[in-house]
């Protein structure tokens, strides 16, 4: 089995051919001279340093050699040091913090490369990056000066401490208390669970961002404030002082990402400082959360890509049976010649490359929004839950299909492909479960603004169809794309009409609604990629013909799901509510 | 978390209300007086003996304390002895072998109970049962007399040795050689992989049924013969003699069913005897294989049921957020009140109970066929690949949904729900991968007999619709059922027209075709269950109203997949074949 190969060619297609980012983001140096060496360096690091640690890390998992201490698997620490030294931790950080201020459209796709090679390992710097974003947006000048450069360099790590045993989706229930001291600091007491990287042996200090309640805070979400709580206290120059009483009580034994420590963190009067305004903790966290949702969508893409490339290589090597028209006739054929195996590979390919295009486009909206383009910000807000939930659902489906390509060998740990399903399976669960993403999309992003954002997307799609309407070759795809967009418009109107009088409607249909939106987005992306392919007809680079053929597969075999989703949505809440579900009925 | 609760109420509904098995199988004593104590005893054994070993067995896995020896997890051996003593191993065996000759419609549903409680453990006696069936059908009088009673009692175990490293789906490639001795025995040499229970510490002897080639055998499947190779040689009275050189070289480390030993078996001139005719080994094995395919469909149902009941119990306990119309208003609601959680539970419920009905019906066809009903045999042949592949695909989907109901807690091993996905994930892979089932269905069962079997099913469904046509309440369901059946008929005609001229067509569309057939079968079962529900209107037993409401959910939210499947099938082979899939393109 060959090692992880970063999808550099496809990333270049997206940045240069599909999105033309150097045109879209003038001033940001995104020429090939800049992009290519970065992608090649990421490919080399992922292939040579972290991919070899993926299976050994999964087998070993994290351990607790002594109370409160967490040991990451062999090689993780050395890889982390190399990663910091190469400057990867600061890719997206501001230049004033020692970072490279790289546009997210490039940073995000580089993150896919690392995550595809080793999701558990990549989650350590990934969480620090989320903490960086949260502190950059909400910290005061002193906090920013103290923490941001140290997180950017990778010297210190960051975590997000939200969940408590009885408070997951419903953070309004959280109980961790923050009691003010005379000197402006606070003492935090409580228990947080599922804290990724809450303890590890990679960095000299860990900066915990913690949601907690002040003594006089109201109940519910309005009483939640954000605090920064370092593992080691420090002076104003960042020199480490004594240990703060925030300790890891235990680590979880998980289905996947076993090499990433998932910690129960006990705050026993741990010293912390308020970040942003009291009572605005949840809002402060959400700046980071939305970005983290894109981030976990990217990691889902990474797992799909990694599993797909394993399945593709296996299908080219493994010989069983005689294929149909594609068979060679003498002796068993490589299973890639069997139509059913091709179908499984194509489902993966279409979701992988379609999702990557959607993520690249969404990342570009992020960069445009940072430059003041308000509409880009609205587009990003709309597709963020789609990227998180649709792509992670596809990752579960596609990593499972990759196992299927391997037959019985896929079930054996040594083969390495089953790990991708186990690792990917967390993505629909964390950073807001996918059902929550669906309600965010339908309830908040679509219905609460009267469908304004959705009309923006519809106009984008209609504009594209109009622009390409002269293309004879694209016509069948454009027709299907238009029809899917029309279906989305129709079901949205139906839901909007009934949602006020039926309080169960949004919850009943949100998940199929999000999937329908995901397909409309992917159909748009595949039609755009096919358009690029046709524009480059005659090129010797096989990527262009490949995009046209894969788009055709997507439209023929995956997009039709839209029809059944529409019927499900039209059924409304009644079938979901009518059954008297009860355990005691059994 | 409560322990495993066998779905006794639903099984009784199927046997008594839906299928009326005591009427259908006159002479077989299937009255409530007989059925109820058997189901209760199975429920007790599963809850008290093997369910408690499920997670500990998964954590420990199997080990090799010395070369060639396999140790099963703590408690497995004692549980197996109890199981044998209670007579469960001989449920389906002939009375002349000391068995109880129980109809499969009951035996199969009892098997679900054990498999749901502990799939890895249940696979040990499950493989023995498969070996029993194979030997009963193909062994000579002496082999039958020697082996069948010992396997029926559980004293000896059986295995099926088919796969070799380079020969999985394509058994024609197998290389294991059998060289005849002067005394009528054969010496077998070769390596078999993925042998479930190939070595274990549960039984005093293991009877391996092995596919191998005679020296003068032609290549391909026609050169394959079946042999019986005992672990310990024995005299004609079954007294154990010396060890036969068939040894376990290693055990696999797997994603799931970790407590079931999956062995590489080395045959180093191991003594064996021919079973049935030379060169007819594959046909002899297929008697058992078809039954084993029903069996693994049943184990898939068991995993869905087990995961579903965990998710249901958790959803009733866990409180987060405020629900819609179903909410109680004060404080967080149990998540079962949230529409999206209900939807996830209902998908599971509809697939679990629909699959159970289909399996019970198929099992009844098995019993009727054994009584000489040729049409029942044709019905069984048709739905066997559907039971295997459709139900196992549903099991992967539904066990994953059960994890989703738990949110982040579902990813933690201690919760126990993620094990069901890991265990269930093997079912689409073994006993003929699901793609092979789909090709068996479409190629062999439908096209090769000119659609005769499918017309039998269509007549069954049309007869049911006709019979219930007076029911106002059933009308919407009957209309949808008729429409799904018509879609199946239409796509079958299209495929039949083009298959001869397009050698890739069957492979390209077989998987969505099987899924479409699965939905037609489930729609028929749900409509029948709803019909029973309406017939029992006014009963105090909530199961009847529950079936009506769940049928409505199935028709509204799951059956619509038929529409997208039909479009995918109509697209034919072109989109699947057109892409130049290659690893080197990346």
Please provide a written account of the structure.
The structure is a homodimer of 586-residue chains. Chain A is α+β, with helices and mostly antiparallel strands and 586 residues long. Chain A has three domains: 8-141, Acyl-CoA dehydrogenase/oxidase, N-terminal domain (Butyryl-Coa Dehydrogenase, subunit A, domain 1); 158-280, Butyryl-CoA Dehydrogenase, subunit A, domain 2 (Beta Barrel), CATH 2.40.110.20; 287-570, Butyryl-CoA Dehydrogenase, subunit A, domain 3 (Up-down Bundle). Chain A is 55% helix and 11% strand. Chain A is built from 19 helices and nine strands. In chain A, the strands form two sheets. In chain A, strands 1, 2, 3, 4, 5, 8 and 9 form a seven-stranded mixed β-sheet that branches. In chain A, strands 6-7 form a two-stranded antiparallel sheet. In chain A, a hairpin with a 5-residue loop joins β2 (177-180) and β3 (186-196). In chain A, α7 (119-138) runs antiparallel to α8 (141-153) and α10 (339-370) crosses α17 (543-558). The first copy, chain A, is globular, with a radius of gyration of 24 Å. The two termini of chain A are 47 Å apart. At the A-B interface, α9, α10, α11, α12 and α13 of A face α9, α10, α11, α12 and α13 of B.
What number is the mean pLDDT of chain A?
Answer: 96
Q: What is the subunit arrangement here?
A: homodimer
User: Which ranges of chain A are low-confidence, i.e. pLDDT below 50, for 5 or more consecutive residues?
Assistant: none
What is the count of structural domains of chain A? 3
């Amino acid at each position: 089995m060959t090692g992880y190969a970063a999808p550099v060619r496809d990333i270049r297609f997206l940045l240069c051919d599909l999105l033309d980012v150097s045109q879209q983001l003038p001033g940001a140096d995104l020429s090939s001279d800049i992009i290519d060496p970065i992608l090649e360096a990421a490919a080399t690091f992922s292939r040579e340093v972290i991919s070899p640690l993926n299976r050994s890390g999964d087998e070993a998992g994290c351990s607790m050699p002594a109370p409160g201490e967490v040991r990451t698997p062999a090689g993780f620490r050395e890889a982390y040091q190399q990663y910091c030294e190469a400057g990867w931790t600061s890719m997206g950080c501001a230049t004033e913090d020692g970072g490279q201020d790289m546009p997210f459209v490039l940073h995000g796709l580089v993150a896919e490369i690392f995550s595809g090679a080793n999701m558990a390992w990549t989650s350590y710097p990934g969480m620090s990056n989320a903490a960086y974003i949260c502190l950059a947006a909400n910290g005061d000048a002193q906090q920013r000066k103290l923490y941001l450069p140290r997180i950017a360099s990778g010297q210190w790590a960051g975590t997000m401490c939200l969940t408590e045993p009885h408070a997951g989706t419903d953070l309004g229930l959280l109980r961790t208390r923050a009691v003010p001291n005379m000197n402006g600091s606070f003492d935090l007491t409580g228990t947080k669970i599922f804290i990724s990287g809450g303890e590890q042996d990679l960095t000299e200090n860990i900066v915990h961002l913690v949601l907690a309640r002040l003594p006089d805070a109201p109940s519910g979400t309005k009483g939640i404030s954000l605090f920064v709580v370092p593992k080691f206290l420090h002076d104003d120059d960042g020199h480490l002082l004594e240990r703060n009483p925030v300790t890891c009580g235990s680590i979880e034994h998980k289905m996947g990402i076993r090499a990433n420590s998932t910690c129960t963190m006990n705050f026993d009067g741990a010293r912390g400082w308020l970040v942003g305004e009291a009572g605005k903790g949840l809002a402060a966290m959400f700046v980071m959360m939305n970005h983290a949702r894109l981030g976990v969508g990217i990691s889902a893409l990474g797992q799909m890509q990694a599993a797909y490339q394993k399945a593709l290589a296996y299908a080219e090597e493994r010989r069983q049976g005689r294929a149909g028209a594609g068979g060679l006739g003498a002796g068993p054929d490589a299973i890639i010649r069997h139509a059913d195996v091709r179908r499984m590979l194509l489902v993966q390919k279409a979701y992988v490359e379609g999702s990557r295009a959607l993520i690249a486009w969404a990342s570009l909206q992020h960069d445009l929004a940072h430059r003041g383009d308000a509409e880009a910000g609205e587009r990003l807000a709309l597709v963020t839950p789609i990227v998180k939930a649709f792509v992670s659902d596809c990752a579960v489906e596609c990593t499972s299909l990759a196992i299927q390509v391997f037959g019985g060998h896929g079930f054996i740990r040594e083969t390495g492909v089953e790990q991708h399903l186990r690792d990917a399976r967390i993505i629909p669960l964390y950073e807001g479960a996918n059902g929550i993403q669906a309600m965010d999309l339908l309830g908040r992003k679509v219905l609460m603004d009267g469908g304004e954002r959705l009309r923006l997307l519809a106009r984008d799609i209609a504009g594209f169809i109009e622009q390409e309407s002269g293309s004879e070759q694209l016509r069948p795809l454009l027709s299907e794309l238009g029809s899917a967009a029309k279906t989305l418009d129709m079901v949205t109107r139906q839901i909007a009409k009934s949602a006020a009088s039926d309080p169960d409607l949004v919850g009943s249909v949100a998940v199929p609604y999000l999937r329908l939106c995901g397909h409309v987005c992917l159909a748009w992306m595949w039609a755009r990629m096919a358009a690029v392919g046709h524009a480059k007809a005659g090129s010797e680079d096989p990527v262009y013909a490949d995009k046209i053929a894969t788009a055709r597969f997507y439209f023929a075999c995956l997009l039709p799901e839209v029809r059944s989703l529409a019927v499900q949505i039209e059924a409304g809440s009644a079938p979901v509510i009518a059954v008297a579900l009860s355990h005691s009925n059994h």
